[in-house]
Amino acid sequence: MSLLEVDDIHTYYEHSHILQGVSLQAESGRVTALLGRNGVGKTTLIRSVIGFTPPRTGGIRFSGESIERLPSHTIARRGVGLVPQGRRVFPSLTVEENLRLGGLPGRAGRWTLETVYTMFPRLRDRVANYGGQLSGGEQQMVAIGRALMSNPVLLLMDEPSEGLAPLIVRELERTMCALKETGLAIVLVEQNLPLALAVADTAYIISKGRVVFHGDPQTIRTDDEVRTKYLGI
Amino acid sequence: MSVGRRWIVAAAAGFVVALLLPRLGVPTFYVSLLTQTWIFAIVAMSLDLLVGFTGLVNFSQAALFGVGAYAVAIGATRFHVTAFVPVMALGIVCAMVTAAIFGLVALRSEGVGFIIITIALNEIVWGLAYQWVSVSGGDNGITGIVRPHVGPFDVSENTGYYYVCLLSFAICLVLLLVLVRSPFGLVLKGVRETPRRMRALGYNVWLYRYLAMTISGGFAGVAGVLFAWYNQFVGPVALSLDQSTQILIIVILGGIGTLYGQVFGALVVVFLSNELSAVTQRWEMVLGVIYFAVVMYAPGGLVVLVPRLWNRLLGRRTPVTAEES
Q1: Which residue range forms the structural domain that includes residue B28?
Q2: Which of B190, B196, B205 sits opposite A101 (nearest CB)?
Q3: Among residues A81, B68, B78, B224, which one has the fewest Cβ atoms lying within 10 Å of its Cβ?
Q4: pLDDT in tens, A88-140
Q5: pTM to 2 decimals?
């Protein structure tokens, strides 16, 4: 049994049928990459798991329990962390306040303010700065740190490299590998193919709301046909 | 001096001045206007907890204020509950229970929907006060409320009662400042910023909004109780929609999300409405122009403007704080 099991979900926005029967699994200590062009439903899949747009049919099991009908805050409390697209740091709260909000009573563990600062030393110098005053890279650190503070078992990351300088993307890659080492399961939605392939243990390609490829990231790297057909590169 | 430190000094100085004012030969009329100022500052702070810290624009605050006031009146005239502590407790509990019921109804919605529902709730309570004559006295209201003794102190005359309101204000301000700086307050700020983010972080946004509304109702109740004793009379005007609007205007004038700024907002609204109404019937127009000017030129509220003018008076440049930039 996998940590996260998405089983044939159909998710709609009003009348638009976005996810048309998607199934996937994610395991502890592994990065599962979701790839695909813009608008194929990758973010919708993330939103279905966290409960923002629950699937109309199909099931989502997390640690063996159905979560597809639970409210978002309950899903989060069970150990699903989210690093949202665009980072969404609270602009008028300080770095430390942002991180504190991530911590939940009853979810203590490896991650505390101190361990987050150890992982992202730069944030220690910025504790009193407001979220809105940070660079994109620093905001990303806050967004990841904030999600880690609740000591999640599964981390959903939606395009974490978006808008970041190449050097910062390298740092992000190291961060994700370090997180994987801790046993965390990561579901990574990413447009940056080299980054995704470098960290992923398994990859899914989604096209028009369906999974069209599932397998070893190495295959995507070597198979030109898969790349051109589904990723447009 | 750091900005925070300067505020503490200013607040302490302001409190001392406020304590001394009645002893400095200020005419009784102005002492009573200042008493009103403290009362309205309390109810404005209670609304600021929702508008400024939780992101809920609540138009039913006057109803909660009024429930506190009517609790005093009905308690005193029918059940002979007149001592300070029981009456204050009764007013707070009634207002909190009302707020808790309002929360159940209004928080099913957010944004504009929430505003409309709170307007309707305020109208319902006003309607009860206006038409349920056997209980509320209808438009005639309830007279015969007597100010209580506070411990050994007789506060029935205006100066004594001024101190009751000033100290109540100071206690409410401190309690609210502690609340908004607590982990609970931090969650409220997160809810104000982005409710969805907070859900993804594992917070039950509805519950936090509901608690904030209920707590805010308690503070509105304190102000209502003080108001009933102040006037020694309660009528439906105390909980009209106009009253709700005026409380919101105080918050916007004073400075949203500042709490202590409400002193300035209340000062301006109470003094202008009393002074101008003696001069012209169109005093609300003048108030409107001032309101407009503050929103245009000092959108942070008078709490931002006052130190700026003070510094200009002393020929200093205003340091730009992080929140402004």
Answers
A1: 3-240
A2: B190
A3: B78
A4: 999 999 999 999 999 988 888 889 999 999 999 999 999 999 998 898 889 99
A5: 0.86
